[in-house]
Amino acid sequence: MNFLKVHDLLLETYGPQRWWPARTPFEVMVGAVLTQNTAWTNVEKAIAKLHEAGAMEAELILKTPQRRVAAWIRSAGYFNVKAKRLRNFCAWYVGHGGEKRLRRLETVALRHELLSINGVGPETADDILLYAFHRPVFVIDAYTRRLFSRLRMLEGDEPYDEMRAHIEARLRRETRSKRKMVPLFNEYHALIVRHGKEICKPRPRCGVCCLAVHCPAAER
DNA sequence: ACCCAGGGTCATA
DNA sequence: TATGACCATGGG
Question: Would you identify the CATH topology of the domain A25-132?
């Protein structure tokens, strides 16, 4: 069993996921911050509120009192924390000349820049890199750790960057060199989330699914 | 009532 | 380096 094979089985089962669900790259970035440890359905409501308020825009969020931003995004949970993080992000975004300027940065430099923002950790940074800037990074989240841990392909508690580098290296090796990594990483993460929501849940352990034959947790 | 959700920061040892 | 507390809404 290799990483590319897991992707192919998930794709056969669920079909293309068409991520990230957003109108613009900036909305991807806002969603990435708002969805931290939060159900996406709650984030959708918050994003709708921002659109209603005409506030899906960095400068406007910056010149809005934090209390009001917090009220807009209330449904996403942790609203005080996230209002502050959204502000930090927007200050960074505007300070670096917006998307057009940021696009010129190399992936490693852009990742380092994102991680310097208070409120943006490795997963949020990689969501933004992959889904807003179309850079070839494999996103690690709780679903990813759970799936590969149950498949016995990883321990599951490896440090973030170690796991990411390992999976990226394996996928490049298992893939024909002509294949583009961005579409692969894009679809793969979306499929893992889809599979995690529907089948590969914390409890009960994995039942019968497209990977059951390879999943130790399903063998009882 | 309890568990979980597309994490990250900060204090502490 | 590695735990633990904390943040908070909403659906099952």
Answer: Endonuclease III; domain 1 (1.10.340)
> Cα separation of A100 and A20, whole Å?
19
Q: Record the pTM.
A: 0.96
**Protein CA at A124 to nucleotide C1' at C9, angstroms:** 20
Sequence-distant (6+) residues with CB within 8 A of A90 are A58, A59, A61, A62
Spacing of A56 CA from B2 C1' in Å: 36
Query: Consecutive 10-residue runs of chain A (220 residues): their mean pLDDT?
Result: 95 97 98 98 98 98 98 98 98 98 98 98 98 98 95 94 97 94 98 95 74 61
Rounded to the nearest 10°, the torsion over CA A50, A53, A55, A61 is: -100
CB-based contacts of A116: which residues, under 8 Å, 6+ apart? Answer: A92
Q: How many CA atoms lie within 13 A of A210 on its CB side?
A: 17
